[in-house]
Design brief:
CATH class of the largest domain: Mainly Beta
Radius of gyration: 25 Å
Structural class: mainly beta
Distance between the termini: 62 Å
Shape: globular
Largest sheet: 5 strands, antiparallel
CATH topology of the largest domain: Immunoglobulin-like
CATH architecture of the largest domain: Sandwich
Number of domains: 2
Number of helices: 1
Oligomer: single chain
Low-confidence stretches: 12-35
Length: 248
């Protein structure tokens, strides 16, 4: 009877040691490595806050449990261009990126930051906007963007194209309508911006390749954000809400 009690006690001690070791390995050890939680973006800022024409812009991001941070940006209304790539780590979970040149007055720049975790998962920041000088946002005209949609609704790696269309109306001549998009996945990302073509009265359309033949396209799991921007002959501008989908 006494031996049996000893065996039970020894078994309990062994079980406690094993459980403690497991907890240490899963929680305490990973905490030492800074990998116990999912990747998270804490803060994103840019300087100068209100840049003038030609000024370079420095963007800073702070992230937790990240192995790297990437940035993608897209400009529109005056000069349409995009850029971004890896942000430079400066320690303490902080990353920095500087645009390679400034922008024209009246340009709007949209950007997002993507932090990649040690496990390959990633987190994407909200959209941040930079207006260079003055971007016209008055009610001089009735310029509006509505009925923005994309097809297929839930794109997969088997789909080659995604088509976006929108209704654009104004009581004066519409000068430009553009689709602008930013996407991210576990290693990097990119941006697309191009003019939308008028397919019928007030309806504009643009199709872009997500899986071009013989080339690695946008991979499964990528998150894609897009919006439609328009400008009319008076200089008035309009921007749609942001739409998004994940490639499955």
């Amino acid at each position: 009877m006494i031996k049996r009690k000893y065996l039970i006690i020894i078994s309990l001690v062994i079980a406690i040691v094993l459980i403690g070791s497991l907890l240490y390995g899963v929680y305490l050890k990973t905490q030492e490595d800074g990998r116990e939680d999912k990747v998270k973006i804490i803060n994103v800022t840019h300087e100068p806050e209100n840049p003038l024409s030609g000024q370079k812009i420095t963007i800073t991001a702070v992230a937790e449990n990240s192995s790297e941070c990437n940035i993608q940006w897209r400009s529109y209304f005056t000069e349409g261009r995009g850029g971004g790539w890896s942000m430079g780590p400066v320690g303490g979970g902080k990353y920095v990126y500087e645009t390679y040149s400034g922008f024209e007055n009246g340009t709007e720049v949209s950007y997002r930051v993507c932090a990649i975790g040690y496990d390959g998962t990633f987190a994407v920041s909200d959209e941040y906007l930079i207006q260079i000088g003055k971007v016209e946002r008055s009610d001089i005209t009735t310029l509006t963007i509505s009925n923005v949609q994309h097809s297929p609704q839930n794109p997969t790696r088997n789909d080659m194209w995604v088509t976006v269309w929108a209704d654009i109306t104004s009581n004066v001549t519409i000068s430009t309508v553009e689709l602008t998009s930013i996407w991210f996945y576990s290693t990097t990302g990119g941006s697309i911006g191009d003019k939308m073509m008028e397919k019928s009265e007030n309806t504009y359309e643009y199709s872009f390749l997500i899986n071009p033949p013989s080339v690695d396209g946008i991979p499964k799991g990528a998150k894609i954000f897009y919006k439609v921007v328009a400008k009319d002959e008076t200089g008035n501008t309009a921007v749609s809400p942001i739409f998004s989908f994940t490639i499955s």
